[in-house]
Design brief:
This protein has 303 residues and is mostly helical. 76% of the residues lie in helices and 0% in strands.
């Protein structure tokens, strides 16, 4: 056998590849919203237990992300923006990613249960299964509503943080869950609009691929409209103060204006001009960080 005919040998993975499996950028949002849920709870939280809870949320999210990449390695290889991940690029064996994901997931749930709260551990376990199985294996390859239904996976962290602090599920963590749930479709569909070719090449039925740009933009607007009153619900229901209420009104109002720009006021712009969609996507990340930061500030500065 000549050297040119020899099978490719995967390069040895290092710690950076294992870290990449946990999707650090996504994890940063998970950690932040989970921490905000914990800090916004109306109780004093032991710093050690609080740190342990957030660590478990982060590790659980990393485990779910690793399992997601293990299952989708072939799909990732077909998409430009994911082709350089450890598995599709051949730097890691798939079984190593699977075992890593399982180990992180199980460890995070056990430590959360033993050190913090079994209720928080149960919700954490549900969130991991929701993302790694319900969303990744079942929803994503089958329906353009994958992001809508699967949005629950990313909505769990503030609820888990709140439960870790209080030991119970009340109205506020449910509202925080709902805010992220309704934020997720316009956030991801804005992204999907300008990376549509990647999803189409991989055969993933994202909304722009299946329903087209016009329908996707209209649904982005619908969710942005629903998000406005929902984000204000904690203020209206007197579970958050005026600082949060003012921030929610301004932030969600701007979110709606950007969604309107995407859905209605594009004029004769060609589909190749994706600046409105990119602005909405970029702002949507900033939106969630500032909104949840305002919630924590409201708790400590106002009430």
């Amino acid at each position: 056998m000549t050297a040119s005919a020899a099978p490719a040998v995967p390069l040895p993975a290092d710690w950076r590849d294992f870290l990449s499996l946990t999707k650090p950028r996504v994890m940063s949002l998970v950690i932040f919203t989970g921490l905000c849920g914990l800090l916004a709870a109306p109780v004093a939280v032991d710093p050690v237990l609080g740190f342990t809870a957030i660590l478990c949320i982060a590790v659980g999210a990393g485990g779910a992300a690793a399992l997601n990449q293990w299952w989708e390695a072939d799909l990732d290889a077909r998409m430009k923006r994911t082709a350089k991940r450890p598995l599709p690029s051949g730097r890691m064996d798939r079984s190593a990613a699977r075992d890593f994901g399982i180990a992180l997931s199980v460890a995070s749930v056990l430590v959360m249960g033993l050190a913090v709260s079994w209720l928080a551990a149960a919700v954490l376990a549900v969130s991991i299964v929701y993302y790694a199985v319900v969303y990744t294996i079942w929803l994503k390859p089958r329906t353009p509503q994958n992001i809508v239904i699967g949005g629950g996976a990313g909505a769990f962290p503030p609820m888990i943080g709140w439960i870790a602090a209080t030991g119970e599920i009340t109205l506020m963590p449910v509202l925080l869950f709902a805010i992220i749930f309704f934020w997720t479709p316009p956030h991801f569909w804005a992204l999907a609009l300008f990376v549509e070719t990647d999803y189409a090449a991989a055969g993933i039925p994202m909304m722009p691929v299946v329903a087209g740009h016009h329908s996707t933009r209209r649904q982005i607007l619908i969710y942005a409209v629903l998000l406005l009153p929902l984000s204000l619900a904690p203020f209206w229901l007197h579970v958050a103060g005026w600082l949060y209420g003012a921030a929610a009104l301004v932030l969600s109002g701007l979110f709606l204006l950007l969604a309107l720009r995407v859905a209605v006021f594009r004029g004769g712009a060609a589909d190749g001009d994706m600046r409105p969609e990119k602005r909405l996507f970029g702002y949507s990340v900033l939106y969630l960080f500032i909104l949840f930061a305002a919630l924590v500030a409201d708790r400590f500065l106002i009430g």
